[in-house]
Amino acid sequence: MVLLMDGGARGSGRLAGKVAIVTGAGSVGPGWGNGRAAAVRFAEEGARVFAVNRDEASLAETLDEVAQRGGTAVPHICDVTDAEAVAAMVRACTEELGTPDVLLNNVGGSRAGGAVEMTEQLWHEQLDVNLTSTFLTCKAVLPFMVQAGRGAIVNTSSTSGIRWTGAAQVAYSASKAGVIAFTRAVAVHHAPDGIRANTVVPGQLHTPMVEARLAGQRAGGDVEALLAQRQARIPLGFMGDGRDTAAAALFLASDEARFVTGTELVVDGGMSARCD
Ligand SMILES: NC(=O)c1ccc[n+]([C@@H]2O[C@H](COP(=O)([O-])OP(=O)(O)OC[C@H]3O[C@@H](n4cnc5c(N)ncnc54)[C@H](O)[C@@H]3O)[C@@H](O)[C@H]2O)c1
Known about the structure:
alpha/beta, Rossmann fold, 8 helices, about 45% helix, binds nicotinamide-adenine-dinucleotide
């Protein structure tokens, strides 16, 4: 199957003229993580991307992919759990590229643990990285969008925020469910300002995170076993990757979704629809 970013094909200007902040625009390893794929796809579709990440190293591959396609991405280092750094990041975006039209909150990640064994510290860390980060960026971006009278926010949840997905990760589930509720509230509250807010809900994907972290957490380091386990749950019979999430985020970020707000787009090959 050829996805747009496999090479050759160019976007068709679906985000032409827009400034887009993408958080977590790097990836935990080489390949198509969700944030990297979105940054590249948004740039390919004409957006000027403000590519935000905690560390510089993993942004390099993203910037390279954007440059290969003749797109624009400005890197910015920021820990999105730090309120002051987030406010400074948004100001920097307005100064370097202009008022953001699009905010894609992609930063997040899961840690294993049920309610009994999870430490209180890990619980708070998970809420910070998955939910508070989203609140902080919205808090900083919304005044600019309100003033402009337009904006599209896309937040990233997970099927673990709507279903049990095979392993206990209580803080991740709770924080990703929180992202959905937060986004719906923002959507309704700011609809009169011309701002839309939606959530993309990725399922079990084959992203670099599987090799880098999940296999160790869940399958004793056996990547193949974990991939087989994950794939077996998916009715479509294959695992998507970050480019599938990026395609959904692109739709929600673009003007094609002008009548879509306060909702969720699930990207999981049908996994959450099954009950057998
Ligand atoms: N990969 C999947 O299968 C999957 C499934 C469902 C949901 N998701 C969600 O998609 C999002 C991206 O997941 P991924 O696996 O593609 O990500 P990833 O771990 O590959 O990349 C995340 C990026 O965010 C950066 N980052 C982490 N913490 C940060 C912080 N505090 N401030 C700024 N940057 C930070 C990392 O440096 C990295 O570049 C997450 O919200 C995740 O929960 C992923």
